[in-house]
Amino acid sequence: NLASASLEDTITPPVKVEHTQLLINGKFVDSASGKTFPTLDPRTGEVIAQVAEGDVEDVNRAVVAARKAFDKGPWPRMTAYERSKILFRFADLIEKHNDEIAALETWDNGKPYEQSAKIEVPMLARVFRYYAGWADKIHGMTVPGDGSHHVQTLHEPIGVAGQIIPWNFPLLMLSWKLGPALACGNTVVLKTAEQTPLSALLVGRLLHEAGLPEGVVNIVSGFGPTAGAAIASHMDIDKVAFTGSTDVGKIILELASKSNLKAVTLELGGKSPFIVCEDADVDQAVEMAHFALFFNQGQCCCAGSRTFVHERVYDEFVEKAKARAINRAVGDPFKSGIEQGPQVDSEQFEKILKYIRHGVDSGATLQAGGDRHGSKGYYIQPTVFSDVKDDMLIAKDEIFGPVQTILKFKNLDEVIARANNSRYGLAAGVFTQNLDTANRLMRALRVGSVWINCFDVFDATIPFGGYKMSGIGREKGIYSLNNYLQVKAVVTSIKNPAW
Ligand code: ADP
User: Model-level pTM?
Assistant: First the structure.
């Protein structure tokens, strides 16, 4: 019984690990080297399973399969309606296996099971249904030309797409990348993050059960500098999509340009402002700012990690934000009612604790938390700092953990300048009941998403991506299709234009 276990118990996950090999050309296979690596349970640091470790040779094998599936296989040649039906069938299978997929996701990542089962896996199905719907609605145009030619555009798949995803939302990141790539008729080599390889392998099997031809989606587990770099620099990959840190994004862009100039889209880091104006409903703003930062253990690229609060409501806000953080339910993510599980691994855990120490040393006021939670695994207490100044490291760097930093502001001009004073530009939250304030801020903020009186709204139809060093390109919605299409202009001479 999940609900009755005490905090100290480690609940046995309600799922078995079935797939640990690489998925290449429709089959589960060992890595060429025979090497494996352990994937760990963040609740304890113990090994869940040994997973085949893909490297350059495995990426090469996967690219050969994807290339063949694109150049000679049925996938880009079948009717768009057939492709669409396979993707719809896949979404049905996701729903059928909802709890199993969710349990693997939670076990490997540490996020609350209720969130995996009720939000993320349903969103996975939603994203694939959205793109399944697009498959037979992608087409070119006829354009006027110069009058003596008939001009049309063909919207064609780009070819073999390389996709490198992170560990914070293993399934959603997979869906944002595979959905549009497959709807457009591309084939794919996807590398999961080394921290969270398990859920994608199960989902990969379901894709094939849904009727996906072999070689269309190949999944390689492995590390960044080896398997990831092999994808970014591969001469037979036509496009690479990456989500992860800004530092690695730069490497991907460099490898792409040094190899074959493959097209690149990047979704990178952030330090998103969450602006609470003087007229905001403070209770609602506290709750939403809490969600904006602490959701997913604070491991969101778009986390509202600079909470700017107007001086008139600042003291009340800080008190209430502190109380909310202290009340946050932290514990085994398989337990019912838990809001926060462990961080994904020891590296992230140590990094976050270092930032917390930095915050204390730099003179910010520690209102709540500040240490690990419990004595095993990678749990961290929900932490709140007030009196944070713009030049403190905790206000500039992406902490990627449950650490809220609250800053005070006096007026809109000032908060706009300070919010934009970041190398990042991923997202922003705005809390106000004044229409003019909302209108002004939505235009002035140099970010890819503005959430007004809400945060982290991620429907499949809404484009997501960054300004500045938060990335290049958009995922989700109609905008993502362009990442996976080439436009071919076809010009035909007209013998007798004077009809
Ligand atoms: P994080 O710091 O959140 O772990 P990373 O940017 O390091 O994010 O990782 C995101 C993804 O990028 C992972 O799949 C990782 O394996 C991959 N990666 C890391 N380094 C490289 C690299 N040098 N080349 C290609 N991919 C990489």
Answer: 0.97
Q: Are strands 403-409 and 365-368 parallel, antiparallel or unpaired?
A: unpaired
With bands split at pLDDT 50, 70 and 90, how would you rate the model's confidence at 147?
confident
**Closest residue by Cα to residue 358 from 420, 403, 422:** 403
Residue 426 to residue 303: CA distance in whole angstroms: 9
Residues 6+ apart with CB under 8 A from 257: none
Picking from 405, 413, 351, the residue whose alpha carbon sits closest to that of residue 380 is 351
Atom of ligand 1 lying closest to residue 192 CA: 14
Tokens of 55: 């490297």
For atom 15 of ligand 1, the residue with the nearest CA is: 224
- Determine the pLDDT at residue 2: 45
Measured from the Cα of 231, ligand 1's closest atom is: 25
Sheet holding 427-431, edge to edge: 365-368, 383-386, 403-409, 306-310, 273-276, 427-431, 449-452
Contact status, residue 185 vs residue 159, Cβ threshold 8 Å: no
DSSP character at residue 212: P
Residues with active-site annotation: 267, 301
Give the whole-angstrom CA distance, residue 476 versus residue 177. 8
Give the integer Cα–Cα distance in Å for 69 and 52.
Answer: 23
pLDDT confidence of residue 5 = 45
Instruction: Say whether 312 sits in a helix, a strand or coil.
Output: coil
Distance 375 CA to ligand 1 centre (A): 29
**Alpha helices by DSSP H, 227-274:** 229-232, 246-258
Q: How far is Cα 385 from Cα 360, in angstroms, rounded to an integer? A: 9
What is the distance between the alpha carbons of residues 175 and 186, in angstroms, rounded to a whole number? 14
Nearest to 241 by CA among 182, 318, 285, 194: 182
